[in-house]
Amino acid sequence: MTIPSPGPFTGRTLDGLGRDLRSGRTTSAELTALALDAIAGGAELNAFVTVDAAGAAEAARRADEELAAGIDRGPLHGIPAGVKDLIMIAGMRVTMGSRHFAGHVADADAACVARLRRAGAVVVGTTTTHEFAYGPTGDRSAGGAARNPWDPSRMTGGSSAGSGAAVGAGLVPLALGTDTGGSVRIPAALCGAAGFKPAYGAIPADGVFPLSRTLDHVGVLAATASCCLLAYQALTGARLPEDPVGEVRVGWLEPGSLFPADPRVAAAARAAAGQVEGETRMAPEVLELFRETYLAIQSGETAAVHAGRLAAAPDLFDPEVLDRLRQAAELPAWRYVRALDARRELEEHAEALFGPYDVLATPTVPILAPPIGAREAEAGGERIQVRAALLGMTSPWNVLGRPALTVPAGLVDGLPVGLQLVARPGGEARLFAAARRTEAGGQG
Amino acid sequence: MTIPSPGPFTGRTLDGLGRDLRSGRTTSAELTALALDAIAGGAELNAFVTVDAAGAAEAARRADEELAAGIDRGPLHGIPAGVKDLIMIAGMRVTMGSRHFAGHVADADAACVARLRRAGAVVVGTTTTHEFAYGPTGDRSAGGAARNPWDPSRMTGGSSAGSGAAVGAGLVPLALGTDTGGSVRIPAALCGAAGFKPAYGAIPADGVFPLSRTLDHVGVLAATASCCLLAYQALTGARLPEDPVGEVRVGWLEPGSLFPADPRVAAAARAAAGQVEGETRMAPEVLELFRETYLAIQSGETAAVHAGRLAAAPDLFDPEVLDRLRQAAELPAWRYVRALDARRELEEHAEALFGPYDVLATPTVPILAPPIGAREAEAGGERIQVRAALLGMTSPWNVLGRPALTVPAGLVDGLPVGLQLVARPGGEARLFAAARRTEAGGQG
Prior knowledge:
The structure is a homodimer.
Chain A lengths: L13 H10 L4 H14 L6 E4 L1 H16 L11 E5 L26 H8 L3 E6 L33 H8 L5 E6 L5 H7 L2 E4 L19 E6 L2 H12 L13 E4 L9 H11 L4 E3 L3 H29 L6 H11 L3 H22 L4 E5 L12 E4 L2 E4 H6 L4 H4 L4 E9 L2 E9 L4 H10 L1 H4 L2
Parallel strand pairs in A: 2-3, 2-4, 7-8, 7-9
Antiparallel strand pairs in A: 1-3, 4-6, 5-6, 5-12, 9-13, 10-11, 12-13
């Protein structure tokens, strides 16, 4: 799995970088300079919106001073990181990928950025987001589409498009994203990175521009599941056992029961999952209820965020985003209320679906990264909608707020495939244990 | 304040009835027979939908046996009570005042009915509700309008219309109601009874047919505030101090800042409130936010309850209810989501409005009971909508879930006026202390 143009962090783990920093083989200043150079050199990917070279250099200098003085903030100390362009960074331009906020400067750090800094990481800049995070393709943003490092004519997936591109291309070893229906996992999968959407609320969303408040999750993108785990622990204070947690039962969730899948993609993910304890399927009526519930909750909450702008300055929206927002604004309230009820019902369906398994495995995305701008594609002999396909495997786990992870699962036609692993509530230790057990998790 | 046709429980308190029961001056069987006779004799009021004479007689017999055996369930022991016709009573016909449920028999007791029975009360029957509780006038119900015992050509108010008529006419000394925007307090006030809407959730709503789940409150109607307090304590296990709880600061909330009021009604309520510590006003923009928030939450939640019936059998609804449901079904979801936000904002506005006061006093309803069927009226020289007027003083306290009480405040033109008292969260003891202090609370 070799990327055409490797970056300075391609093949590097947070663990390895941390060892190099502490052994004196490198410095945060050096890593940060590598990142800044690579970002400049990889400009065609459009992974970053705003780069704070001076601020990053200063933060790296402090990180190095602290390490030299014996102050060690842990695994993220001195690590350069990108932050999605709708997560507030004090004093920086944060645009939400929108012309509405073209000149917007955040006045305070989001909670997750404050935690990132406390953990010693070096914020190098903001990464491209699909406009207002409202789209899983990552190709509609005020600053233009992010481009897939494995083939720049293809989309990164989104909405954390630049975070996926930046980590996938090895420009930075770590990035923050947000995930409302798959927006961390989709670009991670399509760009060859790992990505973790923790349980709802595990990383607080304060200071993150909302898309859909009961579905929005803050997550992390990095090279491997183990890197994601380090970052997750650093950002939450969670401590998961690194040793086996006893038997972990993994079930293969038949992807076709969620969405028509490219058989090559399904096969690659299945191979990466390795030996599993069994297979399961989502019943069509449960799938339909997941889809309706996701759409209703997201539509109502997103339209509430943008009602003022929709009325006052609709022309500043990207036309596709505008069209979707207008549809969302028409959803009747009673459907939203029903969806809140359905959520409780879906908890029970999910319990039945998990059955004897601790972790369910699927492809993260059932298709390969489509060309930028594509809205229709083919999968499994069917004509499919690209947005629906991208979200098809991921969005149910936002409805339920369950922890979900994507890990690289090899290449098909030279493009990355992701394996998604989903846990029960509180099942993070088993989730990462399952990742270590898979073919995919064993690489990295 | 003498009603034209007094009933057997006119002028009787739960306390007095309890003394008579325990001294042997009466029995539950006798009280129940009085209630059943009065209900039959007062049929023109249409206060009751279904009467369970045999079940009530049997429950009364058991209550008497228990008392004779020294088993005393407290202040409701042996007391005949009416239950609004959308609160489930096992084995009884419960119709929601709707042709959709004309033959519906409940299979289990609602939680509040189970508590009522455990407290020893005797359920005599179901009381008329406005269809699906969706209206404060009480004059649209499958079994016809309830009629005001002070003038049967006038409405009772609703939606707990029959509970108001039954207690106001002295047919029973106690009734259960539900209050989503004022549906306990409005009919209590217009029929000359006291009515208490406890804090949200204080009496569980399980087994109550929903109108708007985050606004629905179960409450009680009885002759006086003290009777309501006895019933509330019996149904919740709450124990409030009967002695003064220190100084209780009452503020007069200028009714005109909520809705145009009949000046005679306002004056009667103000007189009943007695000496107050000061006056306050609701700002127009806060009022507007209360109105919008109430309407959005109720519309979304109510339409969610009835969406299936609206699609499948619209003609079974009363035409006015149908028209309102269809409007409610069109409310966009984003307005509901915004309303949930506004609710939090309104908490802060309410704190400012209460300011130094523990309890706010207003008229319960700003007008006298209008003729049955009336939808427009005059108040303070303005043409007003009857539904909006009825709800004008009461609905804000449902948005916030605050405890609110109405007590009789005399007559204007031979029709009852209510004084509403509203407390801060947790302020029940001060609320009832304020009621005892008022002119109104001192009577009864």
